[in-house]
């Protein structure tokens, strides 16, 4: 097995976190990358619903209140095995040791606004997510939670950006075992 800079043994396959504001293309990118790189895609929103890993419903934001401890307990063994793409709009509650690369997708606000309104976002939920993107909240969260050299921001405004990102990330996965 290859060694990382900390001297720990690496997994056989890398784990990647794909994060960003809702509507930035996380799931689309994750699904395409999972197929291209033969990795397992884990959509946290779907996992929370399927396994009941929540503490109820938030009417104001029209979503489940994620129980972060239950999510981490559920994922522990899979993450230790490696070969996962985790797709979620937050990142600060996952253990740092789980990820070899953290990708923050970013989308132009006018594009993001259109995507979110098509999804039915309105009021506080819409404005909160647009502000989150404007102020780069998720990029800062990723930089505060993980080593700087594994965090990358990628533009995700259109299908060409997504294709480029999937290609770039697939190359990274192929070369991962030879990284220091």
TrEMBL record:
Residue sites binding ATP per the record: 23, 25-28, 119
Location of the region described as NMPbind in the Swiss-Prot/TrEMBL record: 43-66
Major localisation: cytoplasm
Catalytic activity: AMP + ATP = 2 ADP; ATP + H2O = ADP + phosphate + H(+)
Keyword annotations of the record: ATP-binding, Cytoplasm, Kinase, Nucleotide-binding, Nucleus, Ribosome biogenesis, rRNA processing, Transferase
GO biological process, one term: ribosomal small subunit biogenesis
InterPro entries noted in UniProt: Adenyl_kinase_AK6, P-loop_NTPase
Gene Ontology CC annotations of this record: cytoplasm; nucleus
MF-aspect GO terms: AMP kinase activity; ATP binding; ATP hydrolysis activity
Residues covered by region (Disordered): 1-24
Highest taxon above the source species: Eukaryota
Gene3D superfamilies: P-loop containing nucleotide triphosphate hydrolases
EC number(s) reported in the record: 2.7.4.3
Enzyme superclass (EC): transferase
Function, in words: Broad-specificity nucleoside monophosphate (NMP) kinase that catalyzes the reversible transfer of the terminal phosphate group between nucleoside triphosphates and monophosphates. Has also ATPase activity. Involved in the late cytoplasmic maturation steps of the 40S ribosomal particles, specifically 18S rRNA maturation. While NMP activity is not required for ribosome maturation, ATPase activity is. Associates transiently with small ribosomal subunit protein uS11. ATP hydrolysis breaks the interaction with uS11.
HAMAP family in alphabetical order: Adenylate_kinase_AK6 (MF_00039)
UniProt record similarity statement: Belongs to the adenylate kinase family. AK6 subfamily.
Name this polypeptide is given: Adenylate kinase isoenzyme 6 homolog
Annotated organism of origin: Erythranthe guttata
UniProt lineage: Eukaryota, Viridiplantae, Streptophyta, Embryophyta, Tracheophyta
């Amino acid at each position: 097995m290859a060694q990382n800079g900390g001297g720990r043994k690496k997994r056989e396959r890398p784990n990647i976190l794909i994060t960003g504001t809702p509507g930035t293309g996380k799931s689309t990118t994750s699904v395409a990358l999972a197929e291209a790189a033969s990795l397992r895609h884990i959509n946290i929103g779907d996992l929370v619903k399927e396994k009941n890993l929540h503490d109820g419903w938030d009417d104001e934001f029209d979503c489940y209140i994620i129980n972060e401890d239950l999510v981490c307990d559920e994922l522990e063994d899979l993450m230790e095995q490696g070969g996962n793409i985790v797709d979620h709009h937050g990142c600060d509650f996952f253990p740092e040791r789980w990820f070899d690369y953290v990708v923050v997708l970013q989308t132009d606000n006018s594009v993001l606004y259109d995507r979110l309104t098509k999804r039915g976002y309105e009021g506080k939920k819409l404005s909160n997510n647009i502000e989150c993107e404007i102020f780069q909240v998720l990029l800062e969260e990723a930089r505060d939670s993980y080593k700087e050299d594994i965090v990358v921001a990628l533009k995700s405004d259109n299908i060409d950006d997504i294709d480029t990102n999937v290609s770039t990330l697939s190359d990274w996965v192929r070369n991962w075992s030879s990284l220091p």
